[in-house]
Target: ATP-grasp domain-containing protein
Amino acid sequence: MNSTGGLRTGDPHGSSAVQQSIVMLKWQPELARELLERTRVHVVLDEFDVAYAGIDEKLLSRALSVQTVSTFSALEELATVAVSIRLQDPHVAKVVSYAEFSQLGAGYIAELLGLGTPVTASVAARDKRLMKDLLAAAGVATPDFFSLPDPSDAEAVAALAERLTFPVVVKPAAGFGTMSTHRVRDAAEFREVCRSFTYEPVLFSRQLIVESFVDGEELHVDAYWGADGPHFSFISRYFAPRLAVQRGECPQDGGELLSREAHPGLYAGMEPFVERVMGALGVVDTMIHLEVFRQPDGRIVFSEIATRVGGGWIPGLISQALGRSVWKVIADLAIDGRTEAPRPVAPYIGMVHLRPDAPGRIVRIPGVEDVMAVPGVFEAQVWHAPSDVLEMRHPSEWVVFAFFGAETFEEFEALVQEIPRRLPVVTVPVVGG
Model:
């Protein structure tokens, strides 16, 4: 990396008319290409990007500046990066951050660049306690919760256990997905979970949130939300709640897009709900991944939100719904403030996550060609190979994604059953593991 820890300057686009610029955090290859080839961009990377992201140096050379921080949690480094960009370029209009790990840094840099985005908005999109506190105050239906700053404090844990109505969910306050997340049935289990709580290595904070367990159908909303509402918005359904997948309580992992045509009432009710959420959090002009529970009576209860593209299979699913890459669409909106209307690839769109029944060493796994050979499959992503070891500590240990579509619901349902039956992933126990 030519500029690790330093600053590269200049205008590679050679334009005499000054146009607004963008600060891009972290490296997503497709998004980076769209932005760097179309507009003026400052790139901020972290050491993980430098080591593992396979950065295209020729493409990177188009940037106005390239700076590197150790992590996007390093406040002093972020401050100096923001000041460097501010002094070099008074025309920055937007900070683009696609990853969970750069969201706090994005809010901090945006505020230092004077972009009018309060840093509390980025904190509320990461710390689930502030997130739910703001939403409850705004009248949004959300689970009751308690803050547990120190789970090793046995007295505090015991006192909190007396106040809880079980079951509850215990998870890192600034976590994401279902990493280090536990559904707890009673006070004894709660005390034990807190005593032995383990954190995924990517999580820095040790503070926890304890919230009421909410049952129901788990939906997610993926949208780009502008000042006047959504530029696009899709509602999808997980085949099973993520915690049920974690506990091995469901036969199939994956999800389906719920089309606006087939579910007009759901979309009509969801848009004002999302609008209240966005207003309460003070978030605008961003991609969102919002998770909710739909109760048997149709009531929507908030779960959590991320101000970024969803992880795992979500980019692929949304790309199929848009009819083109979500990364290109995000670049359109960041640069031009508009994009083409969605053109879904099929009336019914879904994704099956092929994973084994148990952790262990992979002895059988389909390749991309195997998945693509199934009629109706549009795209395949294979994350592992034979001999890899799967720990299966959480549902976000991705194995094989099969994106597919159908003309009728009956054909769609048949594919949901056929794909995993035709393409099993098989593991064996790791000897001595």
Summary: The radius of gyration is 22 Å. The mean pLDDT is 93.
